[in-house]
């Protein structure tokens, strides 16, 4: 058995991986796939990839593009979720803020610098014609930290995936003022250069198993109920999320990669645009 480490957020997007592991689909191919949840999100996962504390990750596109451009020895293997991510813009339930426009010049809670919550705050600022240099941040590590920060007034707002935070909205802990979708496919499967260079055959098996599960995922009987129960979501919310979400097994296109880089450069988060082969894994046949 070949042990392979993979990390991702503890969210409904990643259920195909868990089903494949639980049903022994990877083990049948001689792969012991070891999944670890990383509730801190993309910034933490970039660090783990850079330190080679994992082999693979399911990670946000904008975060890994920024990290690779800064020297992280990692490549994008393929798209995982080809649809945009819907980022909810949340305030504390008792907050005086009633609209997104009122958040200008206020402090954003972020899981850590380089995370999706950090980078999307800039995308949202651009969307609303705010000056990116006026943004300020409070690092809260994870969703629990965001609840504390918004409740105590240490930060004004927090951007996190719409459906993951929906239970907190339903419970009256957060209020959602609106949404900001990513302008690109949201989740990528990535791997460290060291792992990819040494394990092309193993990777092919992993991709084949993954495609089997993602291509049939929406047709699994009562999968919406399974997701709702497993992730403590309302069934109607899961059904809405599934209608918006598309899995993919194709590589990220160079034009889309270019758009991500261009956007990050415009926001002052990248210094220069790099060639596609700095980012995209190309197996040697």
TrEMBL record:
InterPro entries from the UniProt entry: Ca3427-like_PBP2
Keywords assigned by UniProt, alphabetized: Signal
Signal listed as a keyword: yes
Ranges where the Ca3427-like PBP domain occurs: 87-179
CDD domains: PBP2_Ca3427_like
Subcellular location: Periplasm
Pfam families registered for this protein in UniProt: PBP2_Ca3427_like
Entry-linked PANTHER family: ALIPHATIC SULFONATES-BINDING PROTEIN-RELATED, TAURINE-BINDING PERIPLASMIC PROTEIN
Family: Belongs to the bacterial solute-binding protein SsuA/TauA family.
Protein name: Substrate-binding domain-containing protein
């Amino acid at each position: 058995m070949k042990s392979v480490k993979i990390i991702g957020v503890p969210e409904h997007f990643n259920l195909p991986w868990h089903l494949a592991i639980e049903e022994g689909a990877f083990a049948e191919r001689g792969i012991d796939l070891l999944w670890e949840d990383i509730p801190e999100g993309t910034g933490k996962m970039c660090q783990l990839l850079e330190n080679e504390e994992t082999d693979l990750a399911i990670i946000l596109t904008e975060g890994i593009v920024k990290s690779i451009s800064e020297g992280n020895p990692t490549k994008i293997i393929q798209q995982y979720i080809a649809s945009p991510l819907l980022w909810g813009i949340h305030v504390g339930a008792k907050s005086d803020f009633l609209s997104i426009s009122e958040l200008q010049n206020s402090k954003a809670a972020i899981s850590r610098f380089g995370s999706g919550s950090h980078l999307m705050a800039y995308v949202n600022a651009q969307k609303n014609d705010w000056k990116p240099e006026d943004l300020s941040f409070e690092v809260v590590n994870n969703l629990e930290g965001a609840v504390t920060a918004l409740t105590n007034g240490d930060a004004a707002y927090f951007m996190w995936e719409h459906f993951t935070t929906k239970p907190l909205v339903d419970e009256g802990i957060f209020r959602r003022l609106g949404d900001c979708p990513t302008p690109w496919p949201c989740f990528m499967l990535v791997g460290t250069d060291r792992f990819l260079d040494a394990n092309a055959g193993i990777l092919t098996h992993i991709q084949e198993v993954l495609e089997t599960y993602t291509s049939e995922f929406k047709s699994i009987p009562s999968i919406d109920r399974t997701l709702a129960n497993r992730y403590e979501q309302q069934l109607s919310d899961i059904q809405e999320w599934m209608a918006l979400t598309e899995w993919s097994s194709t590589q990220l296109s160079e034009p889309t990669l270019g758009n991500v880089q261009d956007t990050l450069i415009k926001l002052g988060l990248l210094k220069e645009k790099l060639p596609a082969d700095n980012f995209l894994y190309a197996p040697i046949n």
